[in-house]
Write a structure and sequence with these properties.
homotetramer; 384 residues; alpha/beta; Quinone Oxidoreductase, Chain A, domain 1; Rossmann fold; 6-stranded parallel sheet; 12 helices; 24% helix; globular
């Protein structure tokens, strides 16, 4: 190892620089991770655009503490462990060793607040800190983002061993696949009386970006029937089809009413069982609700920064329609390891190798970020 | 029995007359019910005001076929049965006999459509017809509403024997108590990870009318912790307190923010676990959502006619808050008998006798209806 | 059509004859079905062996009313409908016409008893009558079993249109695929706190007969991780592997402890998440429970006739292990149509064409039955 | 404070001595608790009798490390806190201060093993250590049981503030009330199709000891219909009636068949919805299963030491009956605070003051233990 670490630093919205940092000292229980690959996420794009009030209304709300090292969809190799006091375990209770390939859960929780004690499945910690977002690089040990050669993994951060044989470009999908536990969660609402996510159900995914694609994959893995995807990019829609969508509707080629009618015509006039919002634009919510059957589920997952308001009729959209409108941010901690297992298990069904469409070296991080905002890409990654 | 039957007929919105009808012939499996008591319901008030597009967006949507005999919260005595072909059973499979006291489920389903087959717990029938609402009195056998001396109960209508010893004025609450299965339904969402309706949870009921009171009772029966009720009538709030509400907030004496702050102060700043909308005004939805904790449940139950739109932020109100917003109309068929059993069982805890505050004879039906729209009453009933 | 109908009649246990019956008259709402294919089921084998007390402890318990026409896994073409009074609908509310290919749900319910009203998803009717089992052929219209050229479908029997393009030999699996809703049902127990059937869970299927194979398929469709199957037939285990099982253990080549150890070694010593009993031998229950993780689910589905007792320790097997031991018979009515849709949708993943291994004409029904009891077959069918 | 601490030490099964220990030093995050009251639990009786293999089959299985200080149903006052490094929080995230009255969750988990990460609601830790049971008093700081003047509360042990105004003798019930979350858990199985614990359901509690009584209370709090309790002590059955049981059956005055028939006669021949085993004798399981309706739930909670085996028919008792047989040990961590809130809230409904029937000073601990094994007591407590 050299004695400096290079990282891409967002010094303010719209401005990225490559900076050098000293090699960090590790506190008790901390890890040093040699980053192999790190995705560019929608959150990163929002931060770049200055939309830094994210997850407003949550206790984690705060302005971003620039300068930061972005990047939280991280796969890397354990380069160093401070386990002098006691063994450092991964999330599943297995001891970590130098050389292990691991995935990171970017959300670091306190483990002691009311929410950590009572809603432990999800990162609803009152003192939540997200890698690549909530830590400034201005203070030591600086390295809290994945767009860097090395990262410091805190003692209470959750990491997961990557199974042998799972390709790096597939493993890097794991955080987004864990987000798709939005759909697993719907099992909690399942009954044989026509509630929740049932086998052969009709699922609409609004948006064919990386998050949308992961929901397509998960819906297919879990036994969905017809899957319909909407987006404005033919490039993305074509990939959605490859990943299991039965129907891909380009919103530039159709009216809202035509799309609603299409879903209804597929379902004997009744509407979809589940619609998942993976676009991040407020207005699509109303279209999605109209696509739903009576008693259907709408998962609001994509509007994770403020995008405006929609005019909802409590009578017509909610009460009379018996809708279940579920706001979801984030992923359960328990979703990482099963997601990696399933990606390995279904490697002959899904073309996982096509998910990462663009790789950039650390020096071209800004180009990577700009690329990720264009319609002709799926996942863009940094390879430090 | 005489050979004519008197009934209150709403000939058009705002106009009620007492009319006489011939004694009906009963088809195979039908019952003749001698009405003992019939409530005046919110639906009846909407019809009176000409708000006749109810449950819009549902397949049962239609204008009301005036003239109609209103009234669907009915308790009566079986006066005649056409069971020549086979025994007529109540919903629980018990044979009905002349002289039985029964409660009526006003929603008559076809039993054969897709929704009847797939979401059988609730009356989501594609050909749903509601007593007191969907049948014209212009055609024989005319008597399809409870504001009458007698009613015709169709062969496929569900009725329930009233247990011995349950007073008439308590039994008449049963339809509304079945509506409060909105809360039972939330058990389906329960997990020990902080979802659904848990023991000691904080529950807000918006609105202290009859539907609100029944939700107070049910929340208390099911093990709620603090129950907060809001309304604009001190008369109704006082009754809500008697029926188990811990806190009663008059919206005329407080600002929206004060009420939200009150709920937060009760819950260590976190917000209520469950809020139930029993007001029927669109705007209250936003106040209710603000009262909720992260991950809480909002039950939209009261806006069963169109009342306008609210401006909802998909980001702030839904996604970031991890809310479960559940639209509910109606009641499960299986909710009637347990509700009557529980009202009998908890007769020493709840002052059920105070629920019906005003009784009117058939001749004064219009006065009853007008009374029910004032703030100084709870349940108003017709006693034919 | 000729004016006689030939059918295989089991006149008593161990004795089958081909008999001729008159063409039936159809009552209001009844169908005449031209049988295309009908499976030989485990139930039929039990009846043949004289194990005619089936589903003991249920209200449907009774001795078989010999002579009977067996056969209840039926696919056929609607040959005639008595819909003079009103349209005859399939289970999904769609009108049936002569020439439609349909699948039959063999369980005919009364629709009016307590169980029909309260546990409607499953055939728990107090007056349940099963096609191929509960009707004698001694009385007109005689034709209540699938091992016949034609069957009479009662007005209240549930049938399902077979989708265009689903091969006959695949469609005939539908009743068993509906039985595999045992696994869908486990979603009702799902929570993110480690309960129920989660994505990537380890599933053991005890028994690789037709019912076991259908559970393998369904587990795979629903996102299982490792699937382990046990059986005594290498022939059946090989098929189980083709249908998605990851591991196939022949009980003749291994000890009970070795199999338990194998499951534990796959799961870091913890045990399987779900074990499904599809063998029909009492003793396997203890082996299955030992294979389970703490908090796991054991589905007892295969012992549908009396097979003896097992010595269970309430402390060790149940309480200390936090097991969920779920007794399941039968299938939900709502499971047929989604099963057919999924078989069509996953035709490139599962080798459905290999499920039916032996076809026999009606005249060789006894040979078919004997064949089905040997280890070197999967589904044996009659093609009248 | 004096400089010695007296405690009751079980030096071996059947032998208790009062010993003196030095005042302890507190490690970072530890508390010193001045014990106000500590219950005598069934577990303590088993240990006294030498039945020290408890929760066999669990990873916590081990022989008891005599000498031990028993006692784990503890209420006390915080006497000292080592919070020099950081604030010590209670389970709900509230800072603890000297003088706070707290309840203890006796199960101390590691928080890092697979089970802690994946089934966090319940104490299924692979390294679980129970206060009053798993710690020897032979090593410093010695004081890990509640039958003592003071206890050491470990940094990672969960404690809960006792609400103002909740009497000590009521607060001491909290651990057992948390065990009654066995019933809350059944909400996870609830559907409107007749599964799980529904309003007005018939509940049988086998055993009227302290654990049985707490289940009676909880069933009543949660909206049970008829509650039937069985026991051999008229003393206990009389208390069960006071706490809300509708029917109390003395097993010495009735045959097993009579009790089964009684439950069936109450339920139109169908059987109870839920039966909870709180006796701790293997044989009662079969009686309980016979009392259940088809599709009912049996909760095996009382056999927490090995008590022998029962002969179960997989066909008749499980498969044909569609039973849900749920093994449960222990309580969720999240059950303590709501239990205390509900005991306060329902103080006018339940005679909580009668739950503790016998108090003993520390010097008479052995007498307390012997008393607790007799039929004419409910909860026996030590008041140091």
């Amino acid at each position: 190892m050299s004695d400096i670490v290079r990282a891409a630093v967002m010094v303010r919205p719209g401005k990225i620089e490559i900076q050098e940092f000293p090699f960090p000292e590790l506190e008790d229980g901390a890890l040093l991770l040699k980053v192999e690959m790190c995705g560019v996420c929608g959150t990163d794009k929002h931060t770049w655009r200055g939309e830094t009030k994210q997850y407003a209304g949550t206790d984690a709300e705060s302005d971003t503490p620039f300068p930061i090292i972005p990047g939280h969809e991280v796969i890397g190799i354990v380069a160093e462990i401070n386990d002098r006091r006691k063994p450092r375990l991964d999330f599943n209770g297995e001891r970590l060793r130098v050389g292990d390939r691991i995935a990171l859960c970017p959300d670091v929780i306190c483990g002691e607040c009311y929410n950590c004690r009572h809603t432990f499945a999800y990162p609803r910690c009152e003192h939540l800190r997200g890698y690549g977002n909530a830590f400034t690089s201005a203070e030591p040990p600086h390295l809290f983002g994945g767009w860097a050669e090395y990262m410091v993994i805190l003692p209470n951060a959750f990491v997961y061993k990557v199974p042998e044989g799972l390709p790096l470009r597939v493993a890097v999908m794991v955080e987004l696949m864990a987000v798709s536990y939005n759909l697993d969660k719907m099992k909690e609402f399942f009954t044989l009386s026509g509630e929740g996510f049932g086998t052969a159900d009709t699922v609409v995914i609004q948006g064919a970006g990386p998050m949308g694609i992961c929901h397509v994959i998960k819906a297919r893995m879990m036994g969905a029937g017809d899957i319909i995807v909407t987006d404005l990019s033919d490039y993305r829609l074509a990939l959605a089809r490859k990943f299991g969508a039965d129907y891909a509707l380009n919103v530039n080629d159709s009216t809202e009413q035509e799309r609603i009618d299409f879903v209804r015509s597929l379902t004997h006039g009744r509407g979809a069982d589940i619609v998942v919002e993976c676009v991040g634009i407020a207005e699509v919510v109303l279209e999605g609700i109209e696509m739903l059957r009576k008693g259907g589920i709408y998962i609001e997952a994509g509007n994770f920064v403020e995008t405006g308001e929609v005019a909802l009729s409590p009578h017509r959209h909610l009460c009379a329609k018996n809708i279940r409108l579920i706001g979801m941010t984030n992923h359960p901690f328990t979703g990482y390891t099963p997601s990696m297992k399933m990606m390995q298990k279904t490697a002959d069904i899904f073309p996982f190798a096509e998910f990462v469409t663009h790789e950039y070296p650390l020096a071209q991080t800004e180009a990577a970020l700009l690329k990720s905002m264009e319609p002709d890409c799926m996942k863009v990654v940094i390879v430090p």
